[in-house]
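Input record, target 12 of the design panel.
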C-alpha cells in the first residue's frame, strides 16, 4: 500500500472503529459473503489444513468449520480496527479474565515474579493483550514481526500499545528480555508461528501432522528461569472472549526444552479441537517439511 493510498484509507478505518458493534457485525456479514463466496481468500489453504488436521471428520463437517472460520475471520478483522477507539470499560467488557487466572497472575505479581506467556492465533489475541495491560500487574511485552509496510506497521503499533502494552521486535527478543530482569513483566509469544528453519525447529505431532515449533519461548524460559503460562482465549459469543491461564511449569529448568515445547503445544492443540473455527486456518502453518533422519 502506497503512502498516499494509506492516508486516503485511514479515515475509513477510523470510521469503522467508531461504528456500534451491531452495525460492525452487519458489515462483517457482508464481508463474509464477499470473502468466502466471491474472493475465496486462501480457501484452498484453509480446506487443506482442515482436512489434514481432522481426517476423521466428514466433508460436510469440514465445510461447516470452514464457513464458520471465515465468519470469525471477518469479525476479527473489524474487531482489531475497533481497538483504535474502544473505551477501556468496553474493552474489558468484551474481553475478560477468568477469575482464577487473575488470581494466579496477581499472586505471581505479589511475589515479584515475571513470567513468560505463550498463546496461539486463537480467539482475539489482539484484544487479549489490551485487557492484560488494563488489568494485570505485569508490564506486557508482545513479541512481534514488524510489517514491511511502515505505514501499516505504525497503525498496528499504535493499536497494540494504546492501553499500555509494549512491543519487542522478534529479532531483539533474547537481548531485550534479558535486559529487563529488574522489571515485573511478561513477554508474550504467539507460539504457533512457523519457524524460519526446519533444521533448528522442534518437531512434534500437532493436529495429526508433523509440525515445526519454534524454540524461542522455551529457550528463553530456561535461560531466565521464569514460569511459563499458557493463555487460552475462548470465544463465548460474537464479540465476547474469556481468557484462561494455565501454569505450564513453575521452574522451566526442571524440564528439558523439548518437554516444555511439547507441554504448551499440546494445550493449544486441545483448545483448537474444542473450538476449531476460531483458529487462524488461513496461515500456511505446515509449509516446512520435517528433515529426513540420517
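The sequence produced for target 12 reads:
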Amino acid at each position: 500500500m502506497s503512502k498516499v493510498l494509506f492516508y486516503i484509507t485511514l479515515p475509513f478505518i477510523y470510521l469503522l472503529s467508531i461504528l456500534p458493534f451491531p452495525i460492525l457485525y452487519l458489515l462483517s456479514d457482508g464481508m463474509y459473503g464477499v470473502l468466502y463466496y466471491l474472493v475465496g481468500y486462501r480457501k484452498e489453504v484453509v480446506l487443506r489444513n482442515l482436512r489434514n488436521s481432522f481426517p476423521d471428520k466428514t466433508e460436510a463437517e469440514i465445510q461447516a468449520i470452514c464457513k464458520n472460520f471465515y465468519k470469525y475471520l471477518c469479525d476479527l478483522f473489524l474487531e482489531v480496527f475497533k481497538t483504535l477507539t474502544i473505551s477501556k470499560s468496553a474493552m474489558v467488557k468484551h474481553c475478560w479474565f477468568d477469575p482464577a487466572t487473575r488470581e494466579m497472575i496477581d499472586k505471581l505479581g505479589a511475589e515479584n515474579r515475571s513470567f513468560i506467556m505463550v498463546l496461539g492465533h486463537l480467539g482475539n489475541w489482539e484484544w487479549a493483550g489490551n485487557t492484560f495491560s488494563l488489568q494485570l500487574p505485569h508490564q506486557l511485552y508482545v513479541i512481534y514481526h514488524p510489517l514491511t509496510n511502515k505505514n501499516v506497521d505504525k497503525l498496528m503499533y499504535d493499536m497494540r500499545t494504546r492501553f499500555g502494552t509494549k512491543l519487542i521486535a522478534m529479532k531483539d527478543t533474547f537481548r531485550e528480555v534479558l535486559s529487563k530482569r529488574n522489571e515485573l513483566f511478561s513477554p508474550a509469544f504467539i507460539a504457533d508461528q512457523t519457524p524460519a528453519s526446519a533444521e533448528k525447529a522442534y518437531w512434534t505431532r500437532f493436529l495429526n501432522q508433523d509440525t515445526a515449533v519454534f524454540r524461542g519461548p522455551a529457550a528463553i524460559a530456561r535461560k531466565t528461569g521464569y514460569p511459563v503460562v499458557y493463555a487460552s482465549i475462548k470465544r463465548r459469543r460474537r464479540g465476547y472472549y474469556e481468557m484462561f491461564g494455565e501454569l505450564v511449569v513453575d521452574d522451566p529448568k526442571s524440564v528439558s526444552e523439548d518437554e516444555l515445547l511439547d507441554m504448551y503445544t499440546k494445550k493449544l492443540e486441545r483448545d483448537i479441537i474444542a473450538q476449531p473455527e476460531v483458529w487462524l486456518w488461513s496461515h500456511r502453518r505446515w509449509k516446512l517439511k520435517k528433515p529426513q533422519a540420517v
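The mean pLDDT is 95.
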